[in-house]
Amino acid sequence: MNNKTIRAIKGTQDILPEESIKWQSLEDQIRKITSHYGYHEIRTPAFEKTKLFSRSVGEETDIVSKEMYSWTDQGGEDLTLKPELTASVARAFIQHNLGRINPINKLYYIDALFRRERPQKGRYRQFHQFGVEAFGSEHPEIDAEVIALAISIFKSLGLEGLKLNLNSIGSPECRINYRAALQKFLKPHFSELTETSQKRFNDNPLRILDTKASHEIKILEDAPNISDYLTNEDQTHFNEVIEYLDILEIQYKLMPRLVRGLDYYTRTTFEITSSNLGAQNAICGGGRYDGLTEMLGGKPTPGIGFAAGMERVLLLMKSKQFNKNKVQIYIVSLGEKTRATVIKLAQDLRNQSLNTEFDLLRRSLKAQLKEANKMNVKYAIIIGDKELESNQLEVKDFLTGNQQKVELNKIIEHMNSLSF
Ligand code: HAM
Fold it and tell me: Where are the domains of the chain?
């Protein structure tokens, strides 16, 4: 490759045909399972006003403070490529007054997102998520349903060794009290904290719980737990979520330190991790966001959802067999005069929903048969000058090796009667 060649941007990936088969199969499964649970697709624009994310995800979060692709356009508007979808979907929910049309709105999405993170295995600058957002119910049944839906999709894809980590971070009031308690606990250790944690100490001390530094993890061992700060209502809500998960036989691990990195969360938060992914082990994250629509200027509406990283899911699906869209018929032709017949015949067969190929390189008979063999086709139709003159084509069955003569005007009917 010379230095004039333009390459894709760091952290972005081309999805080539071999890979896109896997993507399609994943997408089919997502659409199938979400429909079992009554979810409908929503698609939102690739970019939004920057303030949508700063107001909902939060100014102090990593996403908003350092990872967004933002710019001011020619009209002076501050815009951002979507770094996540919950905010966009909530914006659309409010804008189109979906809550007035239906008391419950269950939405799913499959989309590309952008975060300027340091690329590594499972972490990209353009990545894809599928996820759901359910607006309208504050009750724990929907928390359990959303979690069960995520697990069903992963199960249907044959993923193994997944762990569900679960917590409740309560309502904003308990977060205020917990925040103060955490600061009080960490104050005597302030000088031992990393620079990042020292910065978070004032802005967003709960984020310190996400630390990967081993000496900080040690300090945090004795830190207060948010579960001790839940109101009675929050605790009852969480107990019911757990009860429903038990009824659904969904296993979970209670993780009192799981606070998640986005500001809009309330009450139930969860993450699904895999031990087969290395450092980027979270395949899915989600939770409740009962204050989000209000933050964005809409009517107060409870909501809960999750999103899963599709590249990470696909890394785990590696060994699965995927169905290729196979070529069924190859038309082998020889001689200039046959070309018009061949192009018309291919079109007619394709119109009958038969996957048909013919030679576009004007190759020899032998090379075409070799190609048909390589494609693993079931049948070849052979047309040469002789066949054209006699109106009798040869149909070769690649499995048995049998060859049969079929009249040109009966060929469509004949091919349709065969099994593929
Ligand atoms: P999140 O935890 O930021 O949550 O992202 C969800 C999932 O997206 C992660 O668990 C991971 O699998 C994947 N992901 C995130 N960043 C990257 C990246 N740079 N490269 C590859 N995969 C990535 C949210 O986005 C929330 N909106 C989820 C949610 C929906 N909460 C409620 N509803």
Answer: 17-171+231-316, 329-417
